[in-house]
């Protein structure tokens, strides 16, 4: 039987896009406490199916697919620019296609305005009206208001009319930053990208060992999540658990209870770390405790290999750091990273940031281990023995050499040099993902 929490989430998902939601309304309708309603609404917000806007409330929005993740809803724009919704609340769930800065004559401006775009403009009421008539929402800068006729038009067309105290440049910067951050997130491969829509194979809690053996013969797999009647994961069953047991033995007695699980929004890198660290070959993927799919170690390795071949669209801090360094292969399977320390890599004292040095140590150590073992890996430990201050606008050389390689791990000795002087030393350890 579904829990109250699950029933509320299902109710929210069934609401029409654009519907307003409140804790008190949900609590009264579903006959639950306001605390239960609040927790369910917050989870719905994390799933991306509702959005909470200050001075407006919580609105049901359309869940964005990953391919369109860089697109913002007008509700999200309100939050980004600390805006006030003057009118057109019925359109807050809509997705904007682009934004236009209205720093031109109206006739020229209308050539750039399309349906569902956002016009960013000051207190020019004729521009507000023209934009709404052409199907575009309006964001008024400088905290200005507009006349009642324009507000009535926005309500009738269900196009948001937003006011923000920020200037045009600041608003454009904030929106661009939000889109840029989403582009980076779009490149991160999540577990949900691996599981697809295929119904996962599982075994019932009420099954017997004989049912498990029949399932093995049918599928060719040997590991299955165990689910209860509500399809919630309660255990894992493998060939090791069933070996030597009679066909009548109940699965509930044989299974491993409280298995480690991940959610669809877990990154593949995190899933890989869990699998290596815990020695797991198969991870159940759950949402609200229900089984959504499973991922194997092989799935994770293939995804990591795919990620390495993809071009970067949005630069992360790591990309910015490593773009200043060139990798060189030395003798005896050593690896060198050589590059310049830029002002962006400095701390407040004018030296190199510790985070930058950690990135360089991890990259050099990984490259050295990869020369010995052509496998993917996850960082397990970095032990820094000493670090001397390193001046910005100088050249830094990072040397790494694999010193110990096992079947499931690798260690590398890492040294940092500046002007020929040893300025840092560390030991890098990584868990190797077996193919």
Q: Any key phrases for this structure?
A:
single chain; Arc Repressor Mutant, subunit A; Udp-n-acetylmuramoylalanyl-d-glutamate--2,6- Diaminopimelate Ligase, Chain: A, domain 1; CBS-domain; 4 domains; five-stranded mixed β-sheet; 16 helices; flat; Diverse_CBS-Domain; HotDog_dom_sf; CBS domain-containing protein; CBS domain
How many domains is the backbone divided into?
4
**Count of alpha/pi helices:** 16
- Given as residue ranges, the uncertain stretches (5+ residues, pLDDT < 50) are none
What would CATH call the architecture of the largest domain? Answer: 3-Layer(aba) Sandwich
Structural class: alpha+beta
Mean pLDDT: 85
Shape: flat
- The end-to-end span amounts to 41 Å
- CATH superfamily grouping of the largest domain: HprK N-terminal domain-like
Tell me the β content: 25-35%
CATH topology value of the largest domain: Udp-n-acetylmuramoylalanyl-d-glutamate--2,6- Diaminopimelate Ligase, Chain: A, domain 1
Helix percent band: 25-40%
What is Rg?
Answer: 28 Å
- Largest β sheet strand count, sense and barrel closure: 6 strands, antiparallel
Number of strands: 20
Give me the side-by-side strand order of the main sheet. Answer: 15-16-18-19-20-17
């Amino acid at each position: 039987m579904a829990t109250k929490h699950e029933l509320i989430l299902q109710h929210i998902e069934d609401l029409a896009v654009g519907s307003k939601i409140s804790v008190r309304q949900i609590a009264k309708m579903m006959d639950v406490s306001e605390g239960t309603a609040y927790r369910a609404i917050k989870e719905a917000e994390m799933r991306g199916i509702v959005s909470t806007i200050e001075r407006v409330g919580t609105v049901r929005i359309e869940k964005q697919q990953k391919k369109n993740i860089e697109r913002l809803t007008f509700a999200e724009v309100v939050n980004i620019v600390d805006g006030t919704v003057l009118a057109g609340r019925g359109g807050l769930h809509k997705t904007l296609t682009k934004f236009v800065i209205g720093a031109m004559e109206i006739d020229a401006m209308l050539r750039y305005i399309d349906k569902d775009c956002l016009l960013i403009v000051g207190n020019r009421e004729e521009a507000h009206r023209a934009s709404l008539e052409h199907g575009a929402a309006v964001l008024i800068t400088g905290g200005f208001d507009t006349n009642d006729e324009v507000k009535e038009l926005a309500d009738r067309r269900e196009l948001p009319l937003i006011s923000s105290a920020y200037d045009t440049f600041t608003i454009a910067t904030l929106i661009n930053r939000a889109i840029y951050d989403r582009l980076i997130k779009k490149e991160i491969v999540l577990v949900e990208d691996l599981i697809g829509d295929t119904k996962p194979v599982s075994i019932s809690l009420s099954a017997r060992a004989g049912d498990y053996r029949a399932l093995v013969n049918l599928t060719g797999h040997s590991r299955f999540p165990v689910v209860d009647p509500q399809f919630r994961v309660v255990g894992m069953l493998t060939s090791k658990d069933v070996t030597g047991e009679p066909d009548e033995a109940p699965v509930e007695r044989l299974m491993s209870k409280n298995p480690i699980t991940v959610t669809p929004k877990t990154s593949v890198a995190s899933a890989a770390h869990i699998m290596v660290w815990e020695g797991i070959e198969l991870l159940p993927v759950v949402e609200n405790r229900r089984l959504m799919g499973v991922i194997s170690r092989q799935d994770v390795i293939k995804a990591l290999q795919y990620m390495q071949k993809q071009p970067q669209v949005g630069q992360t801090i790591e990309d910015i750091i490593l773009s200043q360094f060139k990798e060189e292969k030395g003798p005896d399977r050593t690896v060198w990273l050589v590059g310049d320390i830029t002002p962006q890599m400095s701390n407040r004292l004018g030296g190199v940031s510790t985070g930058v040095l950690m990135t360089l140590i991890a990259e050099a150590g990984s490259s050295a281990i990869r020369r010995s073992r052509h496998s993917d890996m996850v960082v397990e430990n970095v032990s820094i023995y000493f670090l001397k201050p390193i001046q910005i606008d100088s050249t830094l050389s990072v040397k790494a050499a694999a010193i110990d390689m096992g079947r499931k791990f690798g260690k590398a000795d890492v040294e940092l040099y500046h002007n020929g002087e040893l300025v840092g030393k560390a030991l890098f350890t990584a868990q190797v993902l077996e193919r």
